[in-house]
Amino acid sequence: MIIGGSNRGGSDREAPVAGPPTGRLRGRTVVITRPVGNGVSLARKVRAQGGQPLLLPGLALRGVADSAAARREWLAACEGEVLIFTSPAAVRYAVALAPLRTAARVLAVGQGTARALRRHGVDHVSAPQRQDSEGLLAQAELQALEGRAVALVGAPGGRGMLRTTLLARGAALREVHVYRRVPARLDRRHVDAVRQLPSSTRVLLSSAESWRNLACALPPDALRRLCAATAVVSSERLAQIAIAAGFARIEQAASAMADDLLAAAMRD
């Protein structure tokens, strides 16, 4: 069964697929914590591998309150020297404010963000193999930044290491908030589904903020049940967060990409 978030702006509902599980997940339940509306394609991948997806979003994405001001900031950022996009959502919400037209060097925090940029006509995107802030900061384009106009495009909060390091390297930093993250609203169906999770469940975690919201929203007994599953994390930092939360079993994926998370979820 797939249970979606109740927030507007995206649906996590998907029709069930009949038939016995035959893929590498062999009927295993996989909890998907991606934002409301962003988990459906991953749920399809889980089903294709014979798993049972449970959509348990920790976040919902919203446009900024003052879109006119955000548009001005976005257009000014496009006149700078370096544009850094922190997520596919950052690309989506930015181009909704105004088309992406820039001569700046464009960087993406990961391959999913890079693909979103290419869909909007950016042919030359730099993205690290290690798909996190540390990997991005190791890129050659972000080493000599003294006095350069750099824009960080995303949402308020998060990516603190990027902000701090770019400033320390002398960048003239502009933070462009084109969307915002809010806690997803969970209802009784979500809680009941978590309470029934088998111990073989895999919980996909690729956002510390999403996990914090879930930990606050779930009743203590449901949270304990969730932590009795195996956490599949996208980074060492999230592994430490999962340990602190009480997960006894942790698998670390190669990245936050869907295929890498699923590959880790398939491990016995």
Please tell me about this protein's structure:
With 268 residues, the chain is an alpha/beta fold. The protein has helices at residues 40-48, 67-77, 88-97, 111-119, 133-137, 160-168, 188-195, 208-217, 220-227, 236-245, 258-265, and strands spanning 29-32, 52-55, 59-63, 82-85, 105-108, 125-126, 149-154, 172-177, 179-183, 202-205, 230-233, 249-252. Helices cover 36% and strands 19% of the residues.
What's the helix and strand layout?
Elements: E1 29-32, H1 40-48, E2 52-55, E3 59-63, H2 67-77, E4 82-85, H3 88-97, E5 105-108, H4 111-119, E6 125-126, H5 133-137, E7 149-154, H6 160-168, E8 172-177, E9 179-183, H7 188-195, E10 202-205, H8 208-217, H9 220-227, E11 230-233, H10 236-245, E12 249-252, H11 258-265
Parallel strand pairs: 1-2, 1-10, 4-5, 4-7, 5-6, 7-8, 10-11, 11-12
Antiparallel strand pairs: 3-9
Q: Please give the number of β-strands.
A: 12
The average pLDDT score comes to 89
* Biggest sheet details: 5 strands, parallel
Rg, Å, rounded: 19 Å
The percent of residues in helical segments reads: 25-40%
